[in-house]
Design brief:
By secondary structure, this protein is of the alpha/beta class. It has eight helices and eleven strands. It is globular.
Amino acid sequence: MKPLVLICSQDAEFYLFLSHILEVDGFATEPAGGAKEALALADEREFCAVVLDCGPASITGSAICARLKREPRTGGLPIIALIAPGAENQHLDLLKAGIDESFVRPIAPAKLLDCLRTRLALTKRGANGLENGGWLTCGGLEMKLDAHRVRGNGHDIHLGPIEFNVLRLMIEAPGKVFRRDELIGAAWPPNIHVGARTVDVHISRIRKALKTASPGSVIRTVRSAGYSLEKPDE
């Protein structure tokens, strides 16, 4: 049976994105809008962890965490907070409420998955459900994480560390449009100022590499939104 994760979020689009990331890695998910709904679901389902979406307009994140920690049926569950930009002031309240781990978004999906697997003492896996050392795949594009290797239709693609991390994020969620700040958060070291033009330059380098070795793998530009790796044809 797949480990079941409860996602507390009132943002339907964010829930769908997050559930996709978790389910590709071998988890199952259930949504809840708040503590009351989460506790009702806990009476019916056996959860292994809770992921709490904390937005800047929400003041309920710490309250939900505190309520879940007080209840016997949910008090022992690891609770991980994903704090949206602009809501960083919620850190202290979440700590007081008993949060187990918190991250400021954007966060690389692999970081969240590794945190969950560490908390649950599960074998760490690649985002495509393979054990570490396996290949992430998207159409003819393949990525081997531990060897820092990328192939397109069997041909090696040589990328620098920034391009590798950007492409990894896209392969983990093909079809999703990533904002530039999400790519920066996943690919660049923290506390380094990176401008939009710098992101565009690295995207251009990835496109050039893909065009040569894997022309079927296309990164499209979504005007005023960001970039997306096209899903392969079914």
